[in-house]
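Following up on my earlier message about cobalt (II) ion. Here are the inputs again, as you asked, copied directly from the submission form:
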Amino acid sequence: MIKTVLTTPYGDQKMGTGGLRKKTKVMMQKHYFENFIQSVFDAIGGIKGKTYVVGGDGRYFNKEAIQIFIKMAAANGAKKLIIGQNGFISTPAGSNEILKNHTDGGFTFSASHNPGGINGDFGVKYANETGGQVPTSITDKIYALSKEIKEFKICEHEDIDLSQIGTQKLEGMEIEVIDPIADYIEMLSKIFDFAALKKLFQSGFTMRFDGMNAVTGPYAIRLFEETLGAAKGSVIRATPLPDFGGLHPDPNLVYDKDLVDFMYSNEATDFAAANDGDGDRNMILGRKFFVTPSDSLAILTDNYKYVPAYKNGIYGVAKSAATSTAVAKVAKALNIPYYVVPTGWKYFVNLMDSKRITLCGEESFGTGSSHIREKDGIWAVLFWLSIIAATGKSVEEITREHWKKYGRVYYMRFDFEGLETQTADKLMSDLEEKLASLQGKKYQDYEVSNAAPFVYHDPVDGSSTKNGLVVDFTDGSKITYRLSGTGSSGATLRMYVESPDSKDFNQETFKKLQPLMNIGTEIAEITKRTGKTKADVNT
Ligand code: VG1
Ligand code: CO
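Thanks, got it. Here's what our run produced:
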C-alpha cells in the first residue's frame, strides 16, 4: 500500500564533493534519509517509469537504507531497480551497471573513505544516466527542495529479500538482484589482457591486496585469486564489515599503515594495493616503495600502450587542480590534450562524455578512465599490473625510470582537521583577499610568481566553478588551499604543496617540502587562526 507521509525539512542536506555525507546517527534521524531521497526524486522531475542501480558499501545502516529506498522508489512509480546482491555494490561497479543497463542513474550508499559504524559516517552518492555524479546545478536543486519538503511517498511492505539473484515485484516495480562482481570483472576483461596477467602470477609474482574490511574484498578475491591466479590469501581484510572493523578505510600512508609496514618488512610481496570503503580509490606500493597518486596518474598515462583498450591512443588526460603537475609533462610529451579541473570526479565526466579525455586522476588516491564515470580502485591496480607484466620491471624501477625521463615532482598534502567552520571560512576569504598583494613577494628562497583563486571554465557546458586558492612560485613550486567538501562535521583545511626537482630523486619528501610547508602555513596564518602548529594528517 502506498502512503504519503507528512514530514518537516532538516535544512542541512547539502551535497559535497562526493554526495551527501553525514554522521550515521544524523542520517538515521526520523525521516532524514527519506527527506533526502524524496528531494532527489522531486528535483529530477520524478522517477515514474525510470530505472536505477542501487547498492552500498555495506556500512552500518546500509541494509535499512536500501529497504527504505526500495519502498520509496516503488511508491514514486519507478519502473525497475537493479540491486547488488545483499545490497552491496562498489562505486565503480555501480557506474558500470548504469552504463551497461542504460539506466536513468544510480544510488550508492556510502560515505566512501570516511569511517563507518553507528559512530561513523553514512552517505548517499547519486549518479545520473552518464554513470557519474550529477553537476552542481542539480545538487543545488536537490538542496533547495530538501529545505522545503513537506511529504514523501513510501510503500507499506515487509522487507525485500536481496540475498538471491533474480527478479521480483513490488507495487508494479521490478526488482532485479544481480551479481555486480561478475559484470565488473567482465568489463575489466575487455580493457586488460587477462592472459598476460595470469602469466605474471604463474611466474611466481606475489601481491597483497587490502580490502580494508570494506566493499572491494569479494571483488578482489574473485578477480585476483580466482580469475587471475594470484596465490590464495593474497587478498586480506576481504569481508565487508558494517564498521570496517574499526578501520578508517582510506588507503594512504596514515590510515593503511599496516600495509605500508608490511611492504617495508622482509616479508613484503612484489606489489601491494589497497582500496577505500566504496572501492574507487587506490594506493599502490612496491617493495619498500610508495607511489604518490599524482605520480601514479603520470606513470599510467605514459604507459597507456600496455593496456589493450588504450593501445590505439588516448584522447587526453585531466587532473584536479590540487594534484601535482607530474602528468602535465607526460601530456606534453605525448602531445595530447590536458585539462585541470576542480576537485571531485563529476568535473571529469563532461570531458569523458565529449571524448576530450580518456584518463584522469586526483591526488587523493583516485585514478580512472572513461570505461566508467567514477574513479576505479581495482582498475588502477590492473593497470599497474599490466605495466609490470609488459615491462618485467618492479614498481620502484618503473617509477624511478619515470622520474629520470620527466623529473620528479615532490608532492604532499597537509590536512588541518576539526576546525570551526567559521574559522576555516574566514581564513579562506581573508586569504583570497590578500592573494593579489602576494605577487612578487619573497619567502626565503621562494618568490611568488602568481597568486589567484582557481577558476574552472567547463569547455562542455560553459559553467564556471571556483575551487581553491593557488600560490605559484617562480621555480615552479606551488601551494594550493581548499576546504574539504566530504566531512560530516566541522571543517578541514587542505594545503597541497609541490616542488618540481628534475635532478635529485632521493630526498625525503617531507624534508624536501618542509620549507614550502612553513611558507604555506605562514601565508594563510594557519597557526595564528587555528592554533595548530602542524597538520593532523600528511599524505
Ligand atoms: C575528497 C578528495 C577528492 C575526492 C573526494 C571524493 O574530497 O579530496 O579528491 O574526489 O574526496 O572521493 P574533499 O572535498 O574532502 O577534499 V570519495 O572516494 O570520498 O568519493
Ligand atoms: Co571512495
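One observation from looking it over: The chain has 17 helices and 25 strands. Hope that helps, and feel free to reply on this thread.
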